[in-house]
DNA sequence: AAAAATGTTGCGTATAAAGCAATAATAATG
DNA sequence: CATTATTATTGCTTTATACGCAACATTTTT
Protein backbone atom coordinates (compact mmCIF):
# COMPACT_ATOMS: atom_id res chain seq x y z
CA UNK A 1 0.00 0.00 0.00
CA UNK A 2 1.46 3.33 -1.08
CA UNK A 3 0.35 5.79 1.58
CA UNK A 4 0.41 9.00 -0.44
CA UNK A 5 -1.54 7.37 -3.26
CA UNK A 6 -4.03 6.10 -0.70
CA UNK A 7 -4.42 9.65 0.59
CA UNK A 8 -4.88 11.10 -2.87
CA UNK A 9 -7.59 8.60 -3.74
CA UNK A 10 -9.31 9.25 -0.42
CA UNK A 11 -9.36 12.93 -1.31
CA UNK A 12 -11.09 12.06 -4.59
CA UNK A 13 -13.74 10.05 -2.73
CA UNK A 14 -14.38 12.85 -0.25
CA UNK A 15 -14.56 15.54 -2.91
CA UNK A 16 -16.91 13.42 -5.03
CA UNK A 17 -19.49 13.36 -2.26
CA UNK A 18 -19.69 17.13 -2.07
CA UNK A 19 -21.44 18.64 -5.06
CA UNK A 20 -19.98 22.10 -4.51
CA UNK A 21 -16.49 20.76 -3.89
CA UNK A 22 -14.21 21.11 -0.87
CA UNK A 23 -11.44 23.48 0.21
CA UNK A 24 -7.91 22.71 1.40
CA UNK A 25 -8.66 23.47 5.05
CA UNK A 26 -11.83 21.37 5.07
CA UNK A 27 -10.04 18.37 3.55
CA UNK A 28 -7.16 18.77 6.01
CA UNK A 29 -9.61 18.74 8.90
CA UNK A 30 -11.44 15.72 7.52
CA UNK A 31 -8.29 13.68 7.03
CA UNK A 32 -6.36 15.08 10.00
CA UNK A 33 -3.44 16.05 7.76
CA UNK A 34 -1.46 19.22 7.24
CA UNK A 35 -2.86 21.76 4.78
CA UNK A 36 0.36 21.87 2.82
CA UNK A 37 0.26 18.09 2.36
CA UNK A 38 -3.33 18.30 1.16
CA UNK A 39 -2.43 21.16 -1.12
CA UNK A 40 0.32 19.21 -2.83
CA UNK A 41 -1.81 16.09 -3.23
CA UNK A 42 -4.56 18.22 -4.78
CA UNK A 43 -2.10 19.91 -7.12
CA UNK A 44 -1.01 16.55 -8.44
CA UNK A 45 -4.62 15.46 -8.97
CA UNK A 46 -5.34 18.77 -10.71
CA UNK A 47 -2.35 18.32 -13.04
CA UNK A 48 -3.78 15.01 -14.20
CA UNK A 49 -7.33 16.30 -14.59
CA UNK A 50 -8.78 14.12 -11.84
CA UNK A 51 -9.68 17.17 -9.77
CA UNK A 52 -10.22 20.78 -10.80
CA UNK A 53 -10.42 23.98 -8.84
CA UNK A 54 -13.51 26.13 -9.18
CA UNK A 55 -11.95 29.51 -10.06
CA UNK A 56 -14.73 31.40 -8.31
CA UNK A 57 -15.05 29.56 -5.02
CA UNK A 58 -11.49 28.12 -4.98
CA UNK A 59 -13.00 24.83 -3.94
CA UNK A 60 -11.81 21.58 -5.45
CA UNK A 61 -14.20 19.31 -7.32
CA UNK A 62 -14.19 16.30 -9.65
CA UNK A 63 -12.51 16.91 -13.02
CA UNK A 64 -13.91 15.86 -16.38
CA UNK A 65 -11.42 13.02 -16.57
CA UNK A 66 -13.99 10.63 -15.13
CA UNK A 67 -16.30 11.13 -18.09
CA UNK A 68 -13.56 9.96 -20.41
CA UNK A 69 -12.45 7.09 -18.23
CA UNK A 70 -16.05 6.04 -17.72
CA UNK A 71 -16.78 5.97 -21.43
CA UNK A 72 -13.53 4.09 -22.11
CA UNK A 73 -14.51 1.61 -19.42
CA UNK A 74 -18.00 1.09 -20.83
CA UNK A 75 -16.52 0.58 -24.30
CA UNK A 76 -14.11 -2.01 -22.97
CA UNK A 77 -16.86 -4.15 -21.45
CA UNK A 78 -17.46 -6.90 -23.99
CA UNK A 79 -20.64 -7.91 -22.23
CA UNK A 80 -22.19 -4.56 -22.98
CA UNK A 81 -21.23 -4.59 -26.65
CA UNK A 82 -22.43 -8.15 -27.14
CA UNK A 83 -25.64 -7.60 -25.19
CA UNK A 84 -26.72 -4.35 -26.85
CA UNK A 85 -28.62 -5.86 -29.83
CA UNK A 86 -30.48 -8.21 -27.49
CA UNK A 87 -31.42 -5.36 -25.18
CA UNK A 88 -32.73 -3.39 -28.14
CA UNK A 89 -34.76 -6.43 -29.18
CA UNK A 90 -36.36 -6.57 -25.72
CA UNK A 91 -36.99 -2.83 -25.72
CA UNK A 92 -38.69 -2.90 -29.09
CA UNK A 93 -40.74 -5.99 -28.21
CA UNK A 94 -41.97 -4.86 -24.77
CA UNK A 95 -41.41 -1.10 -24.76
CA UNK A 96 -40.38 -1.04 -21.11
CA UNK A 97 -37.19 -0.10 -19.26
CA UNK A 98 -34.37 -2.59 -19.93
CA UNK A 99 -31.33 -2.83 -17.64
CA UNK A 100 -28.03 -4.59 -17.96
CA UNK A 101 -26.13 -4.92 -14.69
CA UNK A 102 -22.87 -6.44 -13.53
CA UNK A 103 -22.02 -7.83 -10.10
CA UNK A 104 -19.23 -6.07 -8.24
CA UNK A 105 -18.29 -6.54 -4.61
CA UNK A 106 -21.69 -7.23 -3.16
CA UNK A 107 -23.65 -4.79 -5.28
CA UNK A 108 -24.96 -4.53 -8.81
CA UNK A 109 -23.92 -1.72 -11.16
CA UNK A 110 -26.04 -0.59 -14.09
CA UNK A 111 -23.93 -0.59 -17.24
CA UNK A 112 -26.69 -0.11 -19.76
CA UNK A 113 -30.23 1.21 -19.62
CA UNK A 114 -32.75 1.52 -22.44
CA UNK A 115 -35.75 3.58 -21.53
CA UNK A 116 -38.47 2.58 -24.00
CA UNK A 117 -40.89 5.35 -24.86
CA UNK A 118 -43.37 4.96 -22.03
CA UNK A 119 -42.82 7.44 -19.24
CA UNK A 120 -41.58 5.38 -16.34
CA UNK A 121 -39.32 7.29 -13.98
CA UNK A 122 -36.98 4.90 -12.25
CA UNK A 123 -34.07 5.82 -10.03
CA UNK A 124 -31.63 3.57 -11.83
CA UNK A 125 -28.84 5.21 -13.75
CA UNK A 126 -25.86 3.93 -15.72
CA UNK A 127 -22.86 3.99 -13.42
CA UNK A 128 -24.87 3.80 -10.24
CA UNK A 129 -24.91 0.85 -7.87
CA UNK A 130 -28.01 -0.80 -6.51
CA UNK A 131 -28.69 -3.14 -3.60
CA UNK A 132 -28.93 -6.85 -4.34
CA UNK A 133 -31.57 -7.97 -1.85
CA UNK A 134 -34.48 -5.99 -3.30
CA UNK A 135 -33.79 -5.83 -7.02
CA UNK A 136 -34.60 -8.57 -9.52
CA UNK A 137 -31.11 -8.35 -11.03
CA UNK A 138 -29.53 -8.50 -7.58
CA UNK A 139 -31.59 -11.44 -6.41
CA UNK A 140 -31.00 -13.47 -9.56
CA UNK A 141 -27.25 -12.93 -9.27
CA UNK A 142 -27.21 -13.80 -5.55
CA UNK A 143 -29.22 -16.95 -6.28
CA UNK A 144 -26.37 -18.24 -8.44
CA UNK A 145 -23.47 -17.34 -6.16
CA UNK A 146 -21.78 -19.83 -3.81
CA UNK A 147 -23.45 -19.90 -0.38
CA UNK A 148 -20.49 -18.33 1.43
CA UNK A 149 -20.54 -15.34 -0.89
CA UNK A 150 -24.29 -14.90 -0.38
CA UNK A 151 -23.73 -14.92 3.38
CA UNK A 152 -20.88 -12.39 3.05
CA UNK A 153 -23.04 -10.00 1.04
CA UNK A 154 -25.95 -10.23 3.47
CA UNK A 155 -23.62 -9.75 6.43
CA UNK A 156 -22.08 -6.71 4.80
CA UNK A 157 -25.24 -4.98 3.57
CA UNK A 158 -28.05 -6.51 5.60
CA UNK A 159 -31.63 -6.54 4.22
CA UNK A 160 -32.71 -2.93 4.70
CA UNK A 161 -36.33 -2.09 4.03
CA UNK A 162 -37.02 0.00 0.91
CA UNK A 163 -40.79 -0.50 0.60
CA UNK A 164 -43.53 -2.41 2.43
CA UNK A 165 -42.76 -5.35 0.14
CA UNK A 166 -39.01 -5.60 0.81
CA UNK A 167 -37.96 -8.98 2.23
CA UNK A 168 -36.15 -8.21 5.47
CA UNK A 169 -36.19 -11.65 7.14
CA UNK A 170 -33.12 -13.78 6.40
CA UNK A 171 -34.89 -17.15 6.31
CA UNK A 172 -37.56 -15.84 3.97
CA UNK A 173 -34.84 -14.34 1.83
CA UNK A 174 -32.92 -17.60 1.48
CA UNK A 175 -36.17 -19.37 0.51
CA UNK A 176 -36.73 -16.67 -2.09
CA UNK A 177 -33.26 -17.32 -3.55
CA UNK A 178 -34.07 -21.07 -3.68
CA UNK A 179 -37.25 -20.30 -5.57
CA UNK A 180 -35.34 -18.10 -8.02
CA UNK A 181 -32.80 -20.88 -8.66
CA UNK A 182 -35.68 -23.20 -9.46
CA UNK A 183 -37.54 -20.79 -11.73
CA UNK A 184 -34.39 -19.60 -13.48
CA UNK A 185 -35.42 -15.94 -13.28
CA UNK A 186 -35.68 -13.29 -10.58
CA UNK A 187 -38.90 -11.41 -9.94
CA UNK A 188 -39.31 -8.32 -7.86
CA UNK A 189 -42.73 -6.85 -7.16
CA UNK A 190 -42.43 -3.40 -5.56
CA UNK A 191 -39.59 -4.47 -3.24
CA UNK A 192 -37.22 -1.69 -4.34
CA UNK A 193 -39.52 1.07 -5.56
CA UNK A 194 -43.26 1.46 -4.94
CA UNK A 195 -45.32 0.74 -8.03
CA UNK A 196 -42.46 -0.79 -10.02
CA UNK A 197 -42.05 -4.47 -10.86
CA UNK A 198 -39.21 -6.22 -12.54
CA UNK A 199 -38.12 -9.55 -13.99
CA UNK A 200 -34.48 -10.52 -14.56
CA UNK A 201 -32.46 -13.33 -16.12
CA UNK A 202 -28.92 -14.39 -15.18
CA UNK A 203 -25.90 -14.05 -17.48
CA UNK A 204 -22.96 -16.42 -17.12
CA UNK A 205 -19.40 -16.12 -18.39
CA UNK A 206 -17.15 -18.66 -20.15
CA UNK A 207 -16.25 -20.15 -16.77
CA UNK A 208 -19.96 -20.70 -16.04
CA UNK A 209 -19.82 -18.07 -13.33
CA UNK A 210 -22.66 -15.66 -12.75
CA UNK A 211 -21.40 -12.28 -13.77
CA UNK A 212 -24.36 -10.12 -14.83
CA UNK A 213 -28.12 -9.93 -15.29
CA UNK A 214 -30.59 -8.45 -17.75
CA UNK A 215 -33.97 -7.15 -16.68
CA UNK A 216 -37.25 -5.58 -17.77
CA UNK A 217 -38.93 -3.14 -15.41
CA UNK A 218 -42.36 -1.56 -15.64
CA UNK A 219 -45.16 -0.15 -13.54
CA UNK A 220 -46.88 -2.91 -11.58
CA UNK A 221 -50.13 -1.90 -13.28
CA UNK A 222 -48.69 -3.09 -16.60
CA UNK A 223 -46.41 -5.84 -15.26
CA UNK A 224 -49.26 -8.20 -14.41
CA UNK A 225 -48.81 -11.93 -13.67
CA UNK A 226 -49.87 -12.61 -17.27
CA UNK A 227 -47.35 -10.13 -18.67
CA UNK A 228 -44.54 -11.55 -16.50
CA UNK A 229 -45.45 -15.08 -17.63
CA UNK A 230 -45.25 -13.89 -21.24
CA UNK A 231 -41.85 -12.26 -20.65
CA UNK A 232 -40.27 -15.11 -18.63
CA UNK A 233 -39.26 -17.54 -21.45
CA UNK A 234 -38.16 -14.67 -23.65
CA UNK A 235 -35.86 -13.02 -21.14
CA UNK A 236 -34.45 -16.41 -20.08
CA UNK A 237 -33.64 -17.04 -23.71
CA UNK A 238 -32.05 -13.61 -24.06
CA UNK A 239 -29.97 -14.25 -20.93
CA UNK A 240 -28.76 -17.49 -22.41
CA UNK A 241 -27.97 -15.93 -25.77
CA UNK A 242 -25.92 -13.19 -24.16
CA UNK A 243 -24.10 -15.78 -22.03
CA UNK A 244 -23.23 -17.81 -25.13
CA UNK A 245 -21.88 -14.69 -26.78
CA UNK A 246 -19.50 -14.49 -23.84
CA UNK A 247 -18.27 -18.03 -24.27
CA UNK A 248 -20.66 -19.85 -21.94
CA UNK A 249 -21.46 -23.41 -23.05
CA UNK A 250 -24.32 -25.61 -21.84
CA UNK A 251 -22.50 -28.88 -21.27
CA UNK B 1 3.86 17.53 -7.29
CA UNK B 2 3.71 14.27 -5.37
CA UNK B 3 5.76 11.83 -7.41
CA UNK B 4 4.16 8.55 -6.41
CA UNK B 5 0.66 9.98 -6.94
CA UNK B 6 1.80 11.19 -10.34
CA UNK B 7 3.00 7.68 -11.14
CA UNK B 8 -0.22 6.08 -9.97
CA UNK B 9 -2.33 8.40 -12.13
CA UNK B 10 -0.05 7.76 -15.09
CA UNK B 11 -0.66 4.05 -14.61
CA UNK B 12 -4.41 4.70 -14.77
CA UNK B 13 -4.00 6.60 -18.02
CA UNK B 14 -1.89 3.87 -19.58
CA UNK B 15 -4.20 1.07 -18.48
CA UNK B 16 -7.24 2.97 -19.75
CA UNK B 17 -5.85 2.96 -23.26
CA UNK B 18 -5.58 -0.79 -23.40
CA UNK B 19 -8.94 -2.51 -23.59
CA UNK B 20 -7.59 -5.86 -22.41
CA UNK B 21 -5.61 -4.30 -19.59
CA UNK B 22 -1.89 -4.37 -18.85
CA UNK B 23 0.40 -6.53 -16.74
CA UNK B 24 2.96 -5.51 -14.12
CA UNK B 25 5.95 -6.21 -16.35
CA UNK B 26 4.52 -4.31 -19.28
CA UNK B 27 3.74 -1.26 -17.14
CA UNK B 28 7.23 -1.42 -15.60
CA UNK B 29 8.76 -1.42 -19.06
CA UNK B 30 6.55 1.44 -20.21
CA UNK B 31 7.36 3.63 -17.22
CA UNK B 32 10.94 2.45 -16.71
CA UNK B 33 10.24 1.56 -13.09
CA UNK B 34 10.78 -1.51 -10.99
CA UNK B 35 8.13 -4.22 -11.09
CA UNK B 36 7.77 -4.16 -7.32
CA UNK B 37 7.09 -0.42 -7.38
CA UNK B 38 4.46 -0.89 -10.08
CA UNK B 39 2.97 -3.76 -8.15
CA UNK B 40 2.52 -1.68 -5.00
CA UNK B 41 1.06 1.27 -6.88
CA UNK B 42 -1.41 -1.07 -8.59
CA UNK B 43 -2.35 -2.69 -5.27
CA UNK B 44 -3.25 0.68 -3.84
CA UNK B 45 -5.36 1.53 -6.91
CA UNK B 46 -7.05 -1.88 -6.66
CA UNK B 47 -7.87 -1.34 -2.98
CA UNK B 48 -9.73 1.84 -3.89
CA UNK B 49 -11.54 0.33 -6.87
CA UNK B 50 -9.81 2.50 -9.45
CA UNK B 51 -8.16 -0.51 -11.05
CA UNK B 52 -9.11 -4.17 -10.95
CA UNK B 53 -7.24 -7.30 -11.86
CA UNK B 54 -8.76 -9.65 -14.40
CA UNK B 55 -8.68 -12.97 -12.49
CA UNK B 56 -8.22 -14.96 -15.68
CA UNK B 57 -5.49 -13.03 -17.48
CA UNK B 58 -3.99 -11.40 -14.35
CA UNK B 59 -3.90 -8.12 -16.27
CA UNK B 60 -4.95 -4.88 -14.68
CA UNK B 61 -7.80 -2.83 -16.10
CA UNK B 62 -10.07 0.09 -15.18
CA UNK B 63 -12.33 -0.54 -12.19
CA UNK B 64 -16.03 0.30 -12.04
CA UNK B 65 -15.30 3.26 -9.81
CA UNK B 66 -15.22 5.56 -12.84
CA UNK B 67 -18.86 4.82 -13.62
CA UNK B 68 -19.85 6.06 -10.20
CA UNK B 69 -17.57 9.07 -10.23
CA UNK B 70 -18.71 9.94 -13.74
CA UNK B 71 -22.38 9.83 -12.80
CA UNK B 72 -21.71 11.86 -9.64
CA UNK B 73 -19.83 14.38 -11.77
CA UNK B 74 -22.64 14.65 -14.32
CA UNK B 75 -25.18 15.11 -11.53
CA UNK B 76 -23.10 17.87 -10.02
CA UNK B 77 -23.01 19.90 -13.24
CA UNK B 78 -25.74 22.53 -12.80
CA UNK B 79 -25.53 23.42 -16.47
CA UNK B 80 -26.67 19.97 -17.43
CA UNK B 81 -29.59 19.92 -15.02
CA UNK B 82 -30.74 23.39 -16.03
CA UNK B 83 -30.28 22.73 -19.75
CA UNK B 84 -32.07 19.37 -19.92
CA UNK B 85 -35.64 20.66 -20.43
CA UNK B 86 -34.45 23.00 -23.18
CA UNK B 87 -32.59 20.20 -24.91
CA UNK B 88 -35.71 18.06 -24.78
CA UNK B 89 -37.68 20.94 -26.29
CA UNK B 90 -35.21 21.12 -29.20
CA UNK B 91 -35.27 17.36 -29.64
CA UNK B 92 -39.04 17.22 -29.77
CA UNK B 93 -39.26 20.22 -32.10
CA UNK B 94 -36.62 19.16 -34.63
CA UNK B 95 -36.17 15.42 -33.99
CA UNK B 96 -32.41 15.56 -34.61
CA UNK B 97 -29.35 14.84 -32.46
CA UNK B 98 -28.90 17.45 -29.71
CA UNK B 99 -25.58 17.94 -27.93
CA UNK B 100 -24.58 19.87 -24.86
CA UNK B 101 -20.84 20.40 -24.53
CA UNK B 102 -18.50 22.15 -22.14
CA UNK B 103 -15.12 23.70 -22.85
CA UNK B 104 -12.15 22.16 -21.04
CA UNK B 105 -8.48 22.79 -21.76
CA UNK B 106 -8.62 23.36 -25.47
CA UNK B 107 -11.26 20.75 -26.25
CA UNK B 108 -15.00 20.29 -25.94
CA UNK B 109 -16.54 17.47 -23.93
CA UNK B 110 -20.02 16.15 -24.56
CA UNK B 111 -21.98 16.12 -21.32
CA UNK B 112 -25.41 15.39 -22.75
CA UNK B 113 -26.70 13.90 -25.96
CA UNK B 114 -30.29 13.36 -27.06
CA UNK B 115 -30.60 11.17 -30.08
CA UNK B 116 -34.02 11.93 -31.54
CA UNK B 117 -35.68 9.01 -33.28
CA UNK B 118 -34.16 9.35 -36.74
CA UNK B 119 -31.25 7.03 -37.33
CA UNK B 120 -28.22 9.24 -37.51
CA UNK B 121 -25.04 7.57 -36.39
CA UNK B 122 -22.63 10.12 -35.06
CA UNK B 123 -19.34 9.45 -33.33
CA UNK B 124 -20.08 11.74 -30.43
CA UNK B 125 -20.60 10.19 -27.02
CA UNK B 126 -21.19 11.55 -23.53
CA UNK B 127 -17.82 11.75 -21.82
CA UNK B 128 -15.81 11.95 -24.99
CA UNK B 129 -13.83 14.96 -26.11
CA UNK B 130 -13.98 16.50 -29.56
CA UNK B 131 -11.75 18.92 -31.46
CA UNK B 132 -12.74 22.56 -31.52
CA UNK B 133 -11.63 23.64 -34.99
CA UNK B 134 -14.05 21.46 -36.95
CA UNK B 135 -17.13 21.18 -34.74
CA UNK B 136 -19.89 23.79 -34.52
CA UNK B 137 -19.77 23.70 -30.70
CA UNK B 138 -16.01 24.05 -30.73
CA UNK B 139 -15.98 26.91 -33.19
CA UNK B 140 -18.70 28.88 -31.39
CA UNK B 141 -16.84 28.52 -28.08
CA UNK B 142 -13.50 29.52 -29.66
CA UNK B 143 -15.17 32.55 -31.28
CA UNK B 144 -16.02 33.91 -27.82
CA UNK B 145 -12.68 33.24 -26.12
CA UNK B 146 -9.98 35.89 -25.68
CA UNK B 147 -7.57 36.02 -28.63
CA UNK B 148 -4.59 34.67 -26.65
CA UNK B 149 -6.58 31.60 -25.63
CA UNK B 150 -7.64 30.98 -29.23
CA UNK B 151 -3.99 31.18 -30.30
CA UNK B 152 -2.96 28.79 -27.51
CA UNK B 153 -5.56 26.22 -28.54
CA UNK B 154 -4.58 26.38 -32.21
CA UNK B 155 -0.90 26.13 -31.31
CA UNK B 156 -1.58 23.11 -29.14
CA UNK B 157 -3.91 21.18 -31.42
CA UNK B 158 -3.33 22.62 -34.89
CA UNK B 159 -6.10 22.43 -37.54
CA UNK B 160 -5.92 18.78 -38.59
CA UNK B 161 -8.00 17.73 -41.55
CA UNK B 162 -10.98 15.50 -40.78
CA UNK B 163 -12.87 15.78 -44.10
CA UNK B 164 -12.47 17.62 -47.41
CA UNK B 165 -14.39 20.53 -45.85
CA UNK B 166 -12.22 20.99 -42.75
CA UNK B 167 -10.69 24.47 -42.50
CA UNK B 168 -6.92 23.91 -42.22
CA UNK B 169 -5.62 27.38 -43.06
CA UNK B 170 -5.12 29.66 -40.03
CA UNK B 171 -6.10 32.94 -41.72
CA UNK B 172 -9.28 31.40 -43.12
CA UNK B 173 -10.01 29.97 -39.68
CA UNK B 174 -9.70 33.31 -37.91
CA UNK B 175 -12.04 34.85 -40.50
CA UNK B 176 -14.49 32.04 -39.84
CA UNK B 177 -14.39 32.81 -36.10
CA UNK B 178 -15.06 36.48 -36.88
CA UNK B 179 -18.07 35.49 -38.96
CA UNK B 180 -19.37 33.31 -36.13
CA UNK B 181 -19.03 36.17 -33.65
CA UNK B 182 -21.09 38.33 -36.00
CA UNK B 183 -23.80 35.77 -36.64
CA UNK B 184 -24.02 34.65 -33.02
CA UNK B 185 -24.05 30.97 -33.91
CA UNK B 186 -21.57 28.41 -35.19
CA UNK B 187 -22.24 26.40 -38.31
CA UNK B 188 -20.35 23.35 -39.47
CA UNK B 189 -21.07 21.73 -42.80
CA UNK B 190 -19.30 18.38 -43.08
CA UNK B 191 -16.06 19.67 -41.52
CA UNK B 192 -15.90 16.99 -38.83
CA UNK B 193 -17.83 14.06 -40.31
CA UNK B 194 -18.79 13.48 -43.94
CA UNK B 195 -22.49 13.98 -44.54
CA UNK B 196 -23.19 15.58 -41.16
CA UNK B 197 -24.00 19.27 -40.57
CA UNK B 198 -24.45 21.10 -37.34
CA UNK B 199 -25.50 24.42 -35.85
CA UNK B 200 -24.52 25.55 -32.34
CA UNK B 201 -25.23 28.41 -29.93
CA UNK B 202 -22.97 29.68 -27.16
CA UNK B 203 -23.77 29.42 -23.46
CA UNK B 204 -22.35 31.97 -21.02
CA UNK B 205 -21.99 31.80 -17.24
CA UNK B 206 -22.78 34.38 -14.53
CA UNK B 207 -19.43 36.06 -15.20
CA UNK B 208 -20.36 36.45 -18.90
CA UNK B 209 -17.70 33.92 -19.81
CA UNK B 210 -18.22 31.36 -22.54
CA UNK B 211 -18.45 28.01 -20.88
CA UNK B 212 -20.52 25.68 -23.04
CA UNK B 213 -22.49 25.29 -26.25
CA UNK B 214 -25.67 23.59 -27.40
CA UNK B 215 -26.05 22.14 -30.87
CA UNK B 216 -28.33 20.38 -33.33
CA UNK B 217 -26.75 17.93 -35.77
CA UNK B 218 -28.32 16.16 -38.71
CA UNK B 219 -27.47 14.69 -42.09
CA UNK B 220 -26.58 17.44 -44.58
CA UNK B 221 -29.43 16.17 -46.75
CA UNK B 222 -31.90 17.32 -44.07
CA UNK B 223 -29.88 20.23 -42.70
CA UNK B 224 -30.44 22.49 -45.70
CA UNK B 225 -29.81 26.26 -45.73
CA UNK B 226 -33.54 26.74 -45.21
CA UNK B 227 -33.62 24.37 -42.26
CA UNK B 228 -30.55 25.99 -40.67
CA UNK B 229 -32.17 29.43 -41.12
CA UNK B 230 -35.27 28.10 -39.38
CA UNK B 231 -33.24 26.68 -36.49
CA UNK B 232 -30.92 29.69 -36.01
CA UNK B 233 -33.15 32.06 -33.99
CA UNK B 234 -34.54 29.18 -31.94
CA UNK B 235 -31.20 27.75 -30.89
CA UNK B 236 -29.85 31.24 -30.18
CA UNK B 237 -32.81 31.79 -27.93
CA UNK B 238 -32.28 28.43 -26.23
CA UNK B 239 -28.61 29.28 -25.69
CA UNK B 240 -29.62 32.53 -24.08
CA UNK B 241 -32.25 30.89 -21.88
CA UNK B 242 -29.79 28.33 -20.60
CA UNK B 243 -27.23 31.09 -19.96
CA UNK B 244 -29.77 33.03 -17.93
CA UNK B 245 -30.56 29.96 -15.89
CA UNK B 246 -26.87 29.98 -14.97
CA UNK B 247 -26.94 33.56 -13.82
CA UNK B 248 -25.92 35.33 -17.01
CA UNK B 249 -27.45 38.80 -17.38
CA UNK B 250 -27.73 40.86 -20.53
CA UNK B 251 -26.61 44.27 -19.30
C1' DA C 1 9.65 -31.74 -17.51
C1' DA C 2 12.44 -27.86 -17.87
C1' DA C 3 13.12 -23.19 -18.89
C1' DA C 4 11.42 -18.68 -19.25
C1' DA C 5 8.52 -15.10 -17.95
C1' DT C 6 5.53 -12.77 -14.88
C1' DG C 7 3.70 -11.59 -10.47
C1' DT C 8 4.59 -11.00 -5.60
C1' DT C 9 7.31 -10.22 -1.17
C1' DG C 10 10.97 -9.02 2.59
C1' DC C 11 14.28 -5.78 3.64
C1' DG C 12 17.67 -1.91 3.73
C1' DT C 13 18.64 2.53 1.79
C1' DA C 14 17.76 6.70 -0.57
C1' DT C 15 14.40 9.68 -1.80
C1' DA C 16 10.25 11.91 -1.42
C1' DA C 17 6.49 13.39 1.42
C1' DA C 18 5.08 15.59 5.44
C1' DG C 19 4.70 19.22 8.50
C1' DC C 20 6.29 23.64 10.36
C1' DA C 21 6.24 28.33 10.00
C1' DA C 22 5.85 32.03 7.17
C1' DT C 23 3.82 34.46 3.39
C1' DA C 24 0.17 35.75 0.10
C1' DA C 25 -4.46 36.14 -1.05
C1' DT C 26 -9.18 36.37 0.03
C1' DA C 27 -13.17 36.95 2.97
C1' DA C 28 -15.40 38.82 6.89
C1' DT C 29 -16.13 42.39 10.20
C1' DG C 30 -16.57 46.91 12.20
C1' DC D 1 -12.40 51.48 3.67
C1' DA D 2 -9.23 49.60 7.07
C1' DT D 3 -8.39 45.93 10.00
C1' DT D 4 -8.74 41.30 11.38
C1' DA D 5 -9.53 36.58 10.49
C1' DT D 6 -9.35 32.77 7.55
C1' DT D 7 -7.81 30.12 3.78
C1' DA D 8 -4.55 28.96 0.27
C1' DT D 9 0.16 28.57 -1.04
C1' DT D 10 5.31 28.13 -0.52
C1' DG D 11 10.34 27.40 1.23
C1' DC D 12 12.82 24.51 3.99
C1' DT D 13 14.09 20.82 7.32
C1' DT D 14 12.99 16.52 9.32
C1' DT D 15 10.82 12.22 9.19
C1' DA D 16 8.67 8.48 7.15
C1' DT D 17 7.72 6.23 3.13
C1' DA D 18 8.58 4.45 -1.41
C1' DC D 19 11.82 2.39 -4.19
C1' DG D 20 14.63 -1.09 -6.01
C1' DC D 21 17.24 -5.28 -5.22
C1' DA D 22 17.18 -9.95 -4.92
C1' DA D 23 14.71 -13.82 -4.02
C1' DC D 24 10.65 -16.53 -4.17
C1' DA D 25 6.11 -18.18 -6.00
C1' DT D 26 3.24 -18.89 -9.76
C1' DT D 27 2.12 -19.25 -14.45
C1' DT D 28 3.22 -19.74 -19.24
C1' DT D 29 5.94 -21.34 -22.95
C1' DT D 30 8.95 -24.48 -25.15
Largest interface: A-B, 48 and 49 residues
Helix content of chain A: 40-55%
- Read across the widest sheet of chain A, the strand sequence of neighbours is 5-4-3-8-7-6
Radius of gyration of chain A: 21 Å
CATH topology of the largest domain in chain A: Beta-Lactamase
Query: Low-confidence parts of chain A, pLDDT < 50 over ≥5 residues?
Result: none
Q: Which structural class do the helices and strands of chain A define?
A: alpha+beta
Quickly give the CATH architecture of the largest domain in chain A. 2-Layer Sandwich
Mean model confidence by pLDDT of chain A: 93
Question: Tally the helices of chain A: what do you get?
Answer: 9
Total number of strands of chain A: 8
* Main pleated-sheet profile of chain A: 6 strands, antiparallel
Spell out the CATH superfamily of the largest domain in chain A: GAF domain
Strand content of chain A: 15-25%
Q: In CATH's first tier, which class of the largest domain in chain A applies? A: Alpha Beta
Approximate shape of chain A: elongated
Amino acid sequence: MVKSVDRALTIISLVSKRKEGMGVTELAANLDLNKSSIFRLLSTLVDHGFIEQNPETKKYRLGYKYLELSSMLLESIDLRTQAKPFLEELESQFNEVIHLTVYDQGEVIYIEKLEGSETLRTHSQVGRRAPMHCTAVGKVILAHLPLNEIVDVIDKYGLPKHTEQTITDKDTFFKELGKIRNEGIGREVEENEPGVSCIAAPIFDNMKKITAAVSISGPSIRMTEERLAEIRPIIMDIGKKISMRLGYTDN
